[in-house]
Write a structure and sequence with these properties.
By secondary structure, this protein is mainly α. The chain has 24 helices and seven strands.
Length: about 600
């Protein structure tokens, strides 16, 4: 029988990277995408440097009236009450850029990248590559309480997406380039390649596979090298050496994680509550960033440390040397300033504010523990680090990213066990109290569902041989000249489901019984229905390959052939493939029923206690 192979499926080096004969993904294709990710990472590293220089330029220009690229904190300004106007002016500029440039520059970047991956085949408008870093530089340079990492993640993702659109690669490959660009941007800013890889896994890729890992890992390694060349090889957030924690200390850090977990819930809900209030304003959204900037300026007047990126705030908190009044100011006013600014829809990131607030909260909790529970053996710098990582964990639920980021950014290997304890408890509180996160709430409100679990691909684990229908069970054999009425009568008599059409002893196609039920002319020969033969797959192919072949052929039926004998042995239908998911659905249903029974029992107990 002549094998029918669909275009793009006959070679391992096709765009899809899948071969009908069961070979692994094309090595050349993976190398090609990896090369693109490498080149993009170099560009993103340069953009990260330009972004920080622009932030320094605008900070010097607006707060100090000079033309300079030097890194300077807006907290050092001597403008007095004029400081209120500057963030409002920056917000107005960003609002105008969003109105006449692209509305996609609003927000902190990661949710927008996630949405494009899910809904738009990883297509991001190329204009974002220019507008996002420029708008972020203006927003942060005029005192916006954000970090540079969110915008550069968004910019890197946009650059990767633009590259993918220009070269006309597949949606899957575009997604990989987007994730590679985004994580290269994060690495270029912080020098944390492993944390960036985990960020891609937890928030962007939604899969585990070599075709995704290799480009992302190479991009992150390249981003780290760019960080060392353009910035420094020293820890991003240096802190005093930390001794190995004992059992009491680990338990204490776990308790800190619980408290910070509640704070993460409060922070997440507050940010979107502020956004909801802005949505109710009776004015156009182009003015909202200016209003948010006005609030930033007012807070910055009496709490200048809340202005700008403020990475030094994190370093100071991790040193354990900040007095309690400054820590309280960072906890409260940095949070209020950031929540209002972000809720107004201006351009900025979330990571630096979360790290700042979390480190301040952890430092305060460490001070309280040392004062009232000396037996806890808590280290204040380590408590600050736990707070920093735990708040990001609770707000984003990217727990692996949070733990490894804290390790890489401080280079303190003795912090691993306390970090796991604190981040795990924070994650638990967030998981129990929130259905979404600070990264997914906006997307969920638009009715977009994101994966919440990572499972192996069932279709890639099963072969056609395990589920197909053999010809000797539910089929009859006829030749192309037999009339439809003759074949139909045999189908009813033998209660068969499929018809195998054989010409000179060789199968030429398979027809489902359903097609005979709608026949108009019973005298028509069966062979006339074989102008479009059913696609052919091998019995040892996996089901994901079989499904792709059937989808490309636009057929719900495929003929199964034995690879050794080259003979047709059966058929595979869409229903056979769907049945593979039956076990998983039953298992999920049992879990949901178990949870429902527990909740009903708790409700009954609560009502009984209330009556008692």
């Amino acid at each position: 029988m002549a094998e029918k192979v669909l275009p793009g499926m006959q070679a391992t080096k096709g765009q899809s990277g899948i071969s009908i004969n069961g070979s692994p993904p094309g090595v050349r294709r993976i190398l090609y995408i990896t090369l693109l990710a490498f080149i993009n990472a170099i560009l993103v590293g340069c953009i990260a440097k330009v972004l920080l220089l622009l932030i320094g330029f605008f900070t010097n220009l607006f707060f100090f009236g000079r033309f300079s690229l030097a890194d300077v904190s807006p907290a050092e300004n001597t403008l007095g009450y004029l400081v209120i106007i500057i963030p409002a002016l920056g917000g107005l500029i960003v609002g105008v850029m969003a109105r006449f440039g692209s509305r996609a520059i609003r927000g902190h970047g990661i949710p927008e990248a996630m949405e494009m991956i899910i809904t738009n085949e990883s297509r991001i408008h190329p204009m974002i590559t220019i507008l996002k870093p420029l708008s972020a530089a203006i927003s942060i340079g005029t005192g916006g309480p954000f970090g540079a990492e969110g915008p550069i993640i968004s910019t890197g993702g946009a650059l990767g997406s633009f590259c993918g659109q220009t070269l006309h690669i597949t949606a899957q490959e575009r997604k990989v380039l987007l994730a590679a660009g985004a994580t290269a941007g994060m690495t270029a800013i912080f020098g944390t390649p492993f944390a960036a890889i985990l960020l891609a896994i937890e928030l962007l890729l939604f899969e585990f596979s070599s075709r995704s890992f290799l480009p992302v890992m190479i991009a992150c390694i390249t981003g780290a090298c760019m960080h060392f060349v353009l910035f420094s090889s020293a820890p991003t957030f240096p802190m005093p050496h930390v001794e190995t924690a004992d059992t009491y200390a680990v338990l204490s850090y776990a308790v800190i994680g619980v408290v910070v977990g509640f704070v993460s819930v409060l922070v997440t809900k507050a940010v979107y509550l502020v956004e909801d209030y802005f949505e109710k304003l009776p004015i156009h959204w182009v003015w909202w960033p200016a209003i948010g900037g006005l609030a930033v300026g007012v807070i910055g007047l009496f709490a200048p440390r809340t202005l700008g990126v403020g990475y030094y705030n994190i370093t100071d908190a991790l040193s354990g040397s900040l007095p309690w009044n400054i820590l309280i100011s960072l906890c409260l006013w940095k949070f209020v300033s950031w929540a209002i600014a972000l809720g107004s829809g201006t351009s900025g990131g979330t990571l630096a504010p979360l790290l700042t607030i979390g480190s301040a909260v952890g430092c305060l909790l460490g001070m309280l523990a040392q004062a009232y529970f000396p037996q806890s053996h808590i280290s204040i710098p380590l408590a600050a680090l736990i707070g920093m990582a735990a708040l990001f964990t609770g707000a984003s639920r990217a727990i692996l990213t949070s733990i490894v980021f804290a390790l890489e950014s401080t280079m303190q290997e003795n912090t691993l066990l306390p970090l796991i304890a604190g981040c795990s408890t924070a994650y638990l509180i967030s998981f129990v109290m929130m259905r979404t996160t600070i990264m997914t709430e906006k997307i969920a409100r638009r009715g977009i569902q994101l994966p919440d679990t990572y499972r192996p691909d069932v279709l890639a684990l099963k072969t056609v041989m395990e589920v197909f229908i053999p010809f000797d069970e539910k089929s009859i054999i006829c030749n192309p000249h037999d009339s439809i009425d003759e074949v139909n009568s045999r189908l009813r008599a033998e209660e068969a489901t499929y018809v195998v059409v054989v010409n000179e002893g060789k199968p030429v196609g398979t027809i489902s019984r359903r097609k005979f039920n709608h026949a108009q002319d019973g005298k028509t020969p069966v062979g006339s229905w074989l102008n479009h033969k059913s696609p052919i797959i091998y019995s040892d192919n996996t089901l994901d390959i079989a499904l792709e072949v059937m989808l490309k052929a636009n057929e719900s039926l495929a003929t199964v052939m034995d690879r050794q004998t080259k003979q047709a042995v059966g058929v595979l239908t869409e229903w056979n493939i769907l049945k593979v998911f039956e076990t998983r659905f039953i298992e999920d249903k049992r879990i949901k029923q178990h949870i429902s029974i527990k909740r009903n029992a708790l409700d009954i107990l609560k009502k009984a206690n209330m009556k008692g």
